[in-house]
Amino acid sequence: MKITVMTADEQIITLDVDRDESVENLKALLEVETRVPLQQQQLLFDGKEMRNSEKLSAIGVNDGDLVMMVPSTVPSSRTAANDLGFNPDGSAVNPSAFQQHIRNDADMMAQLFRSDPELAQVVLGNDLNLLQDLLRARHRHIAERRRQEEEELALLHADPFDVEAQKKIEAAIRQKGIDENWAAALEHNPEAFARVVMLYVDMEVNGVPLKAFVDSGAQSTIISKSCAERCGLLRLLDTRYKGIAMGVGQSEILGRIHVAPIKIGNNFYPCSFMVLDQPNMEFLFGLDMLRKHQCMIDLKDNVLRVGGGEVAVPFLQEKDIPSRFLDEGKFAKEASSSEAQVPSGSEQRNETPTGGSSGSSQGQDFEAKVTRLIELGFDREAVVQALKLSSGNEDQAAGFLFGG
Q1: pLDDT digits (tens, 9 = 90+) for 14-28
Q2: Does residue 240 sit in the same domain as residue 277?
Q3: Which stretches within 116-264 are classed as H helix?
Q4: Is residue 77 part of a domain?
Q5: Looking at residue 333, which CATH number applies to its domain?
Q6: Which phi and psi (to 5°) does residue 265 adopt?
Q7: Same domain, 262 and 365
Q8: Which of 71, 88, 114 is the endpoint of a domain?
Q9: CA 120, CA 34: separation in Å to the nearest integer?
Q10: 101-148 tens-digit pLDDT
């Protein structure tokens, strides 16, 4: 049969060969015709390399087919050692030759995909800088592993009565346990290494839609001044409850909004808020309202159940939470923990209500609070103690009493 061979310089050669001729013999014929050494030839048929040991019939070459001859990218025996060598930092001396050498070896590529798929993908790519960086990283990893093995071997042969050696052995055993624990976590509990998205639900406060941060660790429900203004609630701010909350961070308490409607699902519920001068936090649904409205945080079904289960609203997925809210949880936590720290040693400085600067009026105001709390069913001693713990804040004292 006759085949046509086109060289890289567009020379056309027609050869009469047997169907069962080997590719190596075909290259020998081409060496005579083109003066190109057999070792420097690379023959391509249908875009695939023709290997020396293969027969033309097995490859599918038929009469009249076209074969391409291009310069071989496989380094010669004289230059292979240099081109395929490595620098002291682990990078390839000739990254292009190294990449092509790996690509041309099907067995090596298959092994690389099994043992190091990341490196295999980079070898098949076109970014030689990325290939060099990855080779350096692999070299550092191997060097570090060898160093650790040498240290472990040295410790095994260390003097058993050497105190320093025993300390190193103990540290090595401890680190090995940590590494095994880390590996087990990666295998059995990989989600522990992912970022935990805080719990948000859609609510309406006084008719204004909001993303509410649900936090059962916060003592009180909190709304920022800007959010309260946007919801039209700032006109209801009772500044008699203003003060400074100190704890994890410090925030100014501007006052309290005693009651406003919030909509969860299709139902409306009364809610009270502490108003903080906290621009980084918008609205936090705290334990006081969670308890009041018998809420349940159902992480199995990923919903917040309200009213003992009469309403269930789903927690928002990360894609539904505005990006600025992802950091808001941290600031909200600081604000809420400031107030939550008050009964455990932190202090809150309450300003005197308007028109009540004298000592007698303060005493009367304190007694009025005691009377109102006693009417809720608590004894006087517990009420007085709760008011002292809350620095005279009636709502916080009530929270202590109901919570206790």
Answers
A1: 888 888 888 888 888
A2: yes
A3: 117-124, 128-156, 163-188, 225-230
A4: no
A5: 2.40.70.10
A6: 70, -125
A7: no
A8: 71
A9: 36
A10: 888 887 778 877 877 888 888 888 888 888 889 888 888 888 887 887
Taking the CA atoms of 275, 279, 282 and 287 in sequence, report the sign of the dihedral they define: negative
Residue with tokens 């009270």: 272
CA distance 86 to 83: 9
Would you call 346 helix, strand, or coil by DSSP?
coil
Closest C-alpha among 225, 264, 259, 256 to residue 339: 256
- Three-state DSSP at 10 gives coil
Using CA atoms, how far apart are residues 68 and 34, in angstroms rounded to an integer? 13
Instruction: Please indicate, yes or no, if residue 330 is contained in any of the structural domains.
Output: yes
Q: Are residues 271 and 382 in the same domain?
A: no
Cβ 90 vs Cβ 140: under 8 Å:
yes
Q: Are residues 214 and 304 in the same domain?
A: yes
Catalytic residue at 18? no
Are residues 220 and 265 located together in one domain of the fold?
yes
Phi/psi-derived region of residue 35, left when phi > 0, alpha when psi is between -120 and 50, beta in every other case: left
| 117 DSSP assignment | H
In a domain, 328, yes or no: yes
Do 254 and 364 belong together in one domain? no
In a domain, 344, yes or no: yes
Number of folded domains that form the chain: 3
Catalytically annotated residue among 215, 301, 379, 395:
215
**Same domain as 379, residue 340:** no
The domain in which residue 365 lies consists of 359-403
- Tell me how far apart the alpha carbons of residues 274 and 284 are, in angstroms, rounded to a whole number: 10
Determine the distance from the C-alpha atom of residue 144 to the mean position of all C-alpha atoms in its chain, rounded to a whole number.
Answer: 27
pTM beyond cutoff 0.90:
no
What sign does the CA torsion over 123, 129, 130, 131 have? positive
Count of Cβ atoms closer than 10 Å to residue 57 Cβ: 13
Q: Is 362 left (phi over 0), alpha (psi -120 to 50) or beta?
A: alpha
Positive or negative, the Cα torsion across 53, 57, 59, 65? Answer: positive
Q: Please state, in angstroms and as integers, the Cα–Cα distance from residue 107 to each residue in 72, 102, 113, 237, following that order.
A: 19, 9, 10, 76
Residues 377 and 288 grouped into a single domain: no
Pairing of the two strands 222-224 and 267-276: parallel
DSSP 237: -
Banded model confidence at residue 404, pLDDT cuts 50, 70, 90: low
pLDDT-derived band of residue 340, with 50, 70 and 90 as boundaries? very low
Can you say whether the dihedral through the CA atoms of 23, 29, 30, 35 is positive or negative? positive
What is the SS3 assignment for 256?
Answer: strand
